[in-house]
Structures are given as C-alpha cells and as structure tokens.
Design goal:
Two copies of one chain form a homodimer. By secondary structure, chain A is α/β, with parallel strands linked by helices. Chain A has two domains: 165 residues, 3-Layer(aba) Sandwich (Rossmann fold), CATH 3.40.50.720; 118 residues, N-(1-d-carboxylethyl)-l-norvaline Dehydrogenase, domain 2, CATH 1.10.1040.10. Chain A has 14 helices and nine strands. In chain A, the strands form two sheets. A six-stranded parallel beta sheet of chain A has the order 3-2-1-4-5-6, with helices on both faces. In chain A, strands 7-8-9 form a three-stranded mixed beta sheet. The longest helix of chain A is centred in the middle third of the chain and has 29 residues. Chain A is globular. The N and C termini of chain A lie far apart (62 Å). At the A-B interface, strand 9, helix 9, helix 10, helix 11 and helix 12 of A face strand 9, helix 9, helix 10, helix 11 and helix 12 of B.
Chain lengths: 295, 295
C-alpha cells in the first residue's frame, strides 16, 4: 500500500515534532516553514529514515496531498498561510482535508472552513494542549471541530502525535474547547500565584505548603507543576506569557459574542499585558507570581 | 495502660466524626456541644463501645483532660469557647495541651496561645482540610502551628482522624497554611465557573469538555469534583459559600497585615457576598457558576 501523502505547514516548537511523528507513522510528509532553515533541519532529521521533503510555499507543499496540517502563531498568520496567493487553499486539491492545529479564534476557523468548502476541501479546527513536551512525546490532547466525515478522515494523522483526539462538534468547536481550557488555566495560575505570594509573605516554607495542600481540594496540575518553580523564580521554560495573552484575547473576543461573563479572565489578561510591558512576554505563564512579588 | 483523657469541644459536621475517631482510637473522650442534643447523640453513638461522656460546659469537659481539642465556627465562637468564664482555658489543667481545629485567624491563634502559655498550657492551631467526607473517613489533612514539643504531644490524637498531620512552624502557621489553601481554591473554582459558563454559552457539551481538558494543564480537584455538578446545577452538598466567604475574609485581613496582594481573591470574596445576598449562603462554594449563569 502506498503511503498517504501529507503536508505540514509551520515547524515551530509544536509543529516540528508533530510533523516528525506524522513521518514516523508512515505518512509521506512534505513540510513548509517561513524560515527555510527549520524546514531544512526537519528534512535532515526525518527524511533519511522516513522519507519526506520540503516545499517553497504552502501551496506547493499542499499540492497533491491528501491531508494538509497547519500549526502557526495566530489568526493573522493563519489567514496568510491559508488564504494567501501561495497559501494552502490555493494548492490543496478537491476532496483533500485541511486540519489546523493553531490555537485561533472560532471566527477564523469558520471563515477558512467556508472558503475550503467552496473548493470541495474539508476542514477541521484542531487546537492541541500538552505543550512542547507533549508534542515531542506524541502525547498531545487534540480538540476537534468539523463534520463527522472529515473527522473520520483525519483521525489517524492526528493520532500519530496524540494521546487523545476528541470530536467536539461542528467547525469552531475545537477552538471553543481550547478556550475553555485557557480560561480555566489562566485564573488557576493567578490563584496559585496569590496563594504562593501569601505563603512567602507569611514566612511559611512555600515548598512545604505545596506538598501539604496539593493532597486536597487545592490540588491542580498547575500547583504540582508550577507551585514550587514560581516560588523559586524559574520562568525560562514552559508556555510563554505572550501566547497566553493572545489566547485570552481570543476568549474575551468570543465572550463578547456569546454572552459569557469572564471577570477573572479579563483581570488576568491585564496582568499578562503588564508582564509584556515589563519585557517579560517570553517568560512562562506562571510569571504572574513575579508580578505580585516584585511590585 | 490507662487511656489518655481527651476532651472534644464542638460537635458540628466536622467535630462530631472527629471526636468519634478519637474515641475509636482508644482515647477516653468527654465532649461538649452548645446544643446538648448533639452531645447526647454522640454519647449514644460512641460511649457504649468505646467509652466517653459529655459535660455541661467547655471548662468541665476540659477538667482533668491531657488533651483538649476544639472545632467551632469562627473567631468569635473560638474566643467564647476558649476564653469565656466556663471556657476551655478555665478548666484545662497545667501541663495539658489544647489543639484547635477551627479555621480561624492567625491573630486569634496567637492570642489564645499566649493566654494558654500564661497558665502553663500548650497550644496548637491545627485547621483541617478534606471536608465532612474526610472527617467521616478519618482522612483529613491537618496543618499544624506550635512548638515542636506540643506537636509531638498532640500528634497521635490528630492522627486518629487524619491521613496527614504536618507541622508547619510556630503558632499561627497552621492557620496561615489553611489560608493559602483557601486562596488557591476560591479563585480556581471561579476560573472553573467561567470556563464552564463559556462552554455552555458556546453550545459545547460541557461534560465532554471536562472529560477532555481534565487530562492536561487545566486539571484540578475542583474540575474533577465540581465541573460537571456545577453545570448540572447541583449545589446542595459540599462546602458552603458562607464558610468560604468567612475564610476569605480572614485571608484578606491577614494580607492587609503581611503585604500579600490578593486581587482575584478579593473579587471572588465579593461574588460570595452576592451569593449570600441572594440567599444562597448554604449552597456549595461552586455556586459561583450559578451567579454567572443566572445574572
């Protein structure tokens, strides 16, 4: 049986290993990246053993592919890479499927789905969680919006880099689910930061406090993975404040449309803006602690 | 070997089963409760098999006890039961130990410790987490402030109803640790409520969203135990909004003294005040969701 032809557009921290897992899962992968060096590195790392090549434009990468996967930075990048003159939809053939893994707005997902449908191309919005580590280990969680038929067609490709791939509903539902994730994370990190700041100011051993209270109702992934690191001032890893603010801005925009109330989320978004103003946008999103402790 | 004589003051949802575990662990327990009926019930339930009796005042219950444990409602109750004419310190003998399990302020803990010390009585502040279920199962987490010597003396009694008993530092440290717990919980519940409200308003299946996102960075005890129940409108169980507001007020008072910044905590405290104004003070503290969805 010949390999399924796939394209992967966007070899950032997430896309690079995701495209690698796809190649290892026996897809014939053509990659595209804005910075050519990254695409060359990828081909060097994977093409020897698993096959694969790079293309000069998204359109050329998508040409002839059965499945085109994308993972870029934000709504603007996504529109450019999808709808531009040399973009994905210009190169993708009728009957093929486009899967977008960018965390973006539901609005842009629906916009791209509509333009894809007009050309007979399927579309899934499929943001991921699990971070760079999850991408490297092939253990991402993928939240998918689109038709049943397109989901069935794209599931195997997504399984190559995931521990769970779930169909959440029509186009946009993947993005909306990811927004719930980010809304819940952001304020939980600030909650943790306030608790840890209070512990330090009270003269408690904050590490010991984490050990004790993470056994009960205060337990969370954030507490277990960021409680001690924030107290120790370690922020040079993880998920950047820049990205979290971008994601929260998408949530706040969507909430204006759907009527959800996000009082804490709005406040935490403003704290990320302060961190950016202080030059800390690249720090891990647990740098909310720094803001409380420095100010 | 004769049994260690203990007194237990305050047979509420927490104290009643805690005193029961103490009796089962072979302490000779005398109880006191403001509502006599509860004390009679307790004696009926435990005294047959394990021994134990009730007394007419805290002072009488404490008379002759090696260890006196208390668990009441708030700072005012605690001062009354400890420092009143017929209070614990009036009856407790020199060399005995008083352990308070109320969630109260660090200020009142230090105040009581000082008055106890003047009479040659030891004192530990030892608030618990784990809720009524934890108390019934003898699986509480106990956070303890006081001297090493008093901690050593009181540890066995506390182990009778706990899965973990940790010495956090000098008097007040137990209360301060519990405050970190409540600060972290309260805003995490509101974060979850905002996420779930957003999910509902977006037309997503909120139960499915919980299943998907509770595998990653948004995971928390609150999400696993309150995510679906809040969406289903179940609030007639758990930890009351009245109690959470009381605890947050203690945290905000303490923060004014120690300089910690608690912007989210202050906001969430105001939401609990709104719930109380609407007559929902007895609802579980996840009723924050109701506030977002009803308003």
């Amino acid at each position: 049986m010949s390999k399924t032809k796939a394209a992967f557009i966007g070899l950032g921290n997430m896309g690079y290993p995701m495209a690698g897992h796809l190649a290892k899962a026996d897809f014939d992968v053509t990659v595209y990246n804005r910075t050519v060096k990254k695409a060359d590195d990828w081909v060097k790392e994977y093409a020897g053993e698993h096959g694969g090549s790079s293309a000069e434009t998204p359109a050329k990468a998508a040409d002839g592919a059965d499945i085109v996967l994308t993972c870029v930075g934000n709504d603007d990048d996504l529109r450019a890479i999808m709808l531009g003159e040399d973009g994905v939809l210009a190169g993708t053939g009728k009957g093929a499927l486009v899967i977008d893994h960018t965390t973006a707005s539901a609005i842009v997902a629906r916009e791209i789905a509509e333009q894809a449908a007009a050309k007979g191309i399927g579309f899934l919005d499929a943001p991921v969680s699990g971070g760079q580590e999850g991408a490297q280990k092939g253990q991402l969680t993928v939240m998918v919006g689109g038709s049943e038929e397109d989901f069935a067609k794209g599931e195997a490709a997504m399984q190559s880099f995931a521990k769970a791939v779930t169909h959440m509903g029509p186009v946009g539902s993947g993005q909306l689910t990811k927004m719930v994730n980010q809304i819940t994370c952001a304020s939980a990190i600030q909650a943790l930061a306030e608790g840890m700041n209070f512990a330090v100011k009270s003269g408690l051993d904050a590490h010991q406090v984490v050990d004790v209270i993470s056994k009960g109702a205060a337990q969370s992934w954030q507490m277990e993975n960021r409680g001690k690191t924030m107290v120790d001032g370690k922020f040079d890893f993880g998920f950047a404040c820049d990205w979290m603010r971008k994601d929260l801005d998408i949530c706040l925009d969507e909430a204006r449309a759907n009527g959800a109330q996000l009082p804490l989320t709005a406040l935490v978004e403003s704290f990320y803006a302060r961190i950016q103003n202080q030059g800390g946008g690249r720090l891990d999103n647990s740098a909310l602690f720094k803001l409380l402790n420095d100010a």
